[in-house]
Design a protein that fits this description.
InterPro entries: Acyl_CoA_acyltransferase (IPR016181), Bact_Acetyltransf (IPR050832), GNAT_dom (IPR000182). GO terms for molecular function: acyltransferase activity, transferring groups other than amino-acyl groups. Keywords: Acyltransferase, Transferase. By secondary structure, the chain is α+β, with helices and mostly antiparallel strands. It has one domain (about 5-170, about 180-190): 3-Layer(aba) Sandwich (Aminopeptidase). Helix content is about 25%, strand content about 25%. The protein is built from 6 helices and 9 strands. It has helices spanning about 15-25, 35-40, 95-105, 120, 165-170, 185-190, and strands at about 5-10, 50-55, 60-70, 75-85, 110-115, 130, 135, 145-150, 160-165. Strands 1, 2, 3, 4, 5, 6, 7, 8 and 9 form a 9-stranded mixed sheet that branches. Strand 4 (about 75-85), helix 3 and strand 5 (about 110-115) form a beta-alpha-beta unit. The longest helix has 15 residues, at about 95-105. It starts with 6 loop residues before the first strand and ends with a helix. It binds coenzyme A. Coenzyme A (COA) binds near residues 82, 92 and 93.
């Protein structure tokens, strides 16, 4: 196992190009076509929760969180993207980045975090699968990868419906929206991709 002596710090403007290159390498150049990215369009990540891992001057990991609205007007955070340099994986950097950011998010008063990702990995930091049909992403999403973590107990209770960016929510006068209850089309569409 590789040993990494890394520190976790808040991202700076000088990190941005390196982060984008790392994310292109980790997720591919088509990453912006994913439904999570639709929620990020026109929005800024939460500055205090944009963390990097460094070894000396070298950036070896990145995590960011974006504000979203779930169900009928509930504020939440979308975790991601999360990536660790290929040479520094399996050193605990990904988990430490998330744990540090999630502790900070709770301190800042955030109650609910969602993400689209592999449950066997994210369960290490307390994420679980969103019950079928409760939250609907703006694009085909495998329901097995739709995960949540409550920072305040009960934060998901009663939340049901579309996940939207704050900007889109305002445009659509969100309170008047209702979400489809049947997730089968999303599941089939995701399987067909
Ligand atoms: C996923 C990723 C962020 C993990 O970062 P990392 O720093 O290597 O993770 P950690 O060291 O904290 O944890 C490593 C452990 O998680 C496991 N793990 C890593 N990715 C996993 C996945 N997708 N599913 C299940 N387990 C996973 C490893 O096997 C390892 O297990 P072990 O502790 O039993 O040996 C990194 O591999 C990465 O950047 N991947 C490409 C981008 C990506 O896929 N990001 C989102 C994941 S859905």
């Amino acid at each position: 196992m590789t040993v990494s002596h890394f520190t976790i710090e808040t991202q700076t403007a000088q990190d941005l190009d390196t982060i984008e290159t790392m994310l292109d390498a980790a997720f591919g150049l088509d990453r912006r076509t994913r439904s999570s990215y639709r929620l990020r369009e026109g929005e800024e990540p939460v500055e205090e929760l944009s963390l990097v891992a460094r070894e000396g001057d070298c950036l070896v990991g990145t995590v960011r969180f974006w504000p979203v609205i779930v169900g009928e007007g509930r504020e939440a955070l979308l975790l991601g993207p999360l990536a660790v340099h290929p040479d520094r994986r399996n050193c605990g950097i990904g988990v430490r980045l998330m744990e540090t950011a999630l502790d900070k998010a709770r301190e800042l008063g955030h109650a609910l975090v969602i993400l689209v990702g592999d449950e066997p990995y994210y369960r290490r930091v307390g994420f679980a699968r969103v019950p079928d049909g409760r939250l609907v992403m703006p694009g085909p999403t495998d329901p097995d990868r739709m995960l949540y973590r409550e920072l305040v107990p009960g934060a998901l209770d009663g939340a049901e419906g579309l996940v939207l960016s704050p900007g889109r929510w305002r445009e659509l006068d969100g309170g008047r929206l209702t979400a489809p209850r049947d997730t089968r089309p999303a599941r089939e569409a995701a399987a067909a991709r």
